[in-house]
């Protein structure tokens, strides 16, 4: 009886074990999770950029539960999530153009629910067979003619999708100055090539450009201006040296250049500082034309000596120029009329001509000073009563002073 119980127990144990095995087998067949875990994608290889996106095939799956899968793709310009798609009974993931058009490293993760079941990366390479543009940048656009200054040319070639080309791609950088053209090959580094172009020692314009295979850049130019000015000379141009208060003298600089002989740019400001023997000071200014600057000054009315200096403030200057002005008269003719009128003149110049109107005449008499101005070479003053012929009168004009008793004056 005891053995019978043992046999019955073993039999029941076998039956239960068989049921468990059958249940597990059924579960393995119908579990969607275990079936999906067998899905993989065909790993993308390094390839050139595409304008229409990239299709990635799904491997080893008769059916796919779309909602459980996603492909996370990260490229140069951002990330995106793709869901599986089906066409002609084949499943695939589509990487969008926003990722496939940009060269660089693309990383991807195949995710089942919240579990990464496959991952990898591949390289998107620029399309070197379809070049689009060769961008040039040049700066500064203005340099000076010396051994220290330079401008820089930068070239950035791109493919038809605006991707920079790979390193070591050869680009030819060119620049031209006057009759000389320089062409230098450069290998791209991190997408661009650059060259420092030293400033020539003469003024002009530098033209630049670059080429790669059959494409060329636009022309960019840099202007070369003179360096700082060096000291210069000052000269005087005048018809005569008489202090007539009428003539105009012209002060002229020599041609102002830099140390390499380049003429200063038109419009360079030159100041002219002047002083006379009495300590009076004044200034005028002029802008250069072809390197020359001119300043005009009207002659004084009295004999004196001027000291004139021209300078470009803080940069260059001329030596002092000494100018002496002589008196235009040797004597002051005076006449008394009707015992109450004094007539000064006629005042004549160095050629005997009547002096210009408006020349100042100063008369000091009995403690009072009268200021007159000439008209047709004459200045006249009339007193209220007859003048004492023994009284002294002082008359000054054009740098001369005459003091005499009134009785000594000529009479009408």
UniProtKB/TrEMBL annotation:
InterPro entries: Ig-like_fold, Invasin/intimin_cell_adhesion
Highest taxon above the source species: Bacteria
Protein name as annotated: Uncharacterized protein
């Amino acid at each position: 009886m005891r053995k019978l119980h043992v046999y019955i127990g073993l039999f029941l144990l076998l039956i239960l074990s068989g049921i468990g095995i059958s249940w597990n087998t059924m579960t393995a067949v119908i579990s969607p999770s275990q079936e999906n875990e067998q899905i993989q994608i065909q790993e993308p290889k390094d390839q050139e950029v595409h304008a229409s996106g990239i299709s990635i095939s799904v491997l080893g799956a008769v059916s796919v539960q779309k909602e459980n899968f996603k492909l996370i793709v990260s490229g140069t310009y951002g990330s995106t999530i793709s869901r599986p798609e089906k066409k002609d009974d084949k499943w695939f993931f589509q990487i969008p153009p926003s990722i496939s058009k940009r060269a660089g490293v693309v990383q991807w993760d195949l995710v089942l629910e919240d579990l990464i079941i496959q991952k990898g990366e591949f390289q998107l390479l620029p399309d070197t067979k379809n070049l689009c543009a060769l961008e040039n940048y040049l700066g500064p656009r203005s340099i000076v003619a010396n051994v220290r200054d330079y401008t820089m040319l930068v070239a950035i070639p791109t493919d038809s999708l605006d991707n920079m080309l790979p390193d070591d791609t050869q680009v030819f950088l060119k620049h031209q100055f006057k009759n000389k053209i320089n062409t230098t090959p450069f290998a791209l580094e991190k997408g661009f090539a650059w060259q420092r172009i030293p400033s020539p020692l003469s003024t002009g314009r530098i033209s630049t450009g670059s080429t790669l295979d059959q494409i060329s850049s636009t022309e960019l130019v840099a202007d070369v201006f003179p360096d700082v000015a060096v000291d210069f000379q000052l000269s005087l141009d005048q018809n005569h040296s008489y202090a007539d208060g009428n003539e105009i003298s012209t002060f002229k600089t020599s041609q102002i250049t830099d140390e390499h002989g380049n003429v200063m740019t038109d419009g360079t400001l030159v100041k002219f500082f002047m002083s006379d023997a009495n300590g009076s000071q004044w200034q005028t200014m002029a802008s250069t034309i072809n390197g020359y600057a001119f300043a005009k000054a009207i002659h004084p009315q009295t004999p004196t000596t001027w000291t004139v200096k021209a300078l470009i403030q803080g940069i260059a200057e001329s030596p002092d120029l000494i100018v002496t002005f002589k008196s235009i008269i040797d004597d002051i003719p005076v006449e008394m009329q009707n015992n109450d009128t004094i007539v000064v003149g006629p005042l004549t110049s160095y050629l005997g001509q009547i002096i210009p109107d408006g020349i100042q005449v100063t008369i000091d008499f009995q403690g009072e000073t009268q200021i007159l101005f000439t008209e047709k070479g004459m200045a006249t003053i009339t007193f209220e009563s007859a003048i004492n012929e023994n009284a002294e009168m002082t008359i000054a004009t054009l740098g001369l002073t005459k003091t005499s008793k009134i009785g000594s004056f000529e009479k009408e």
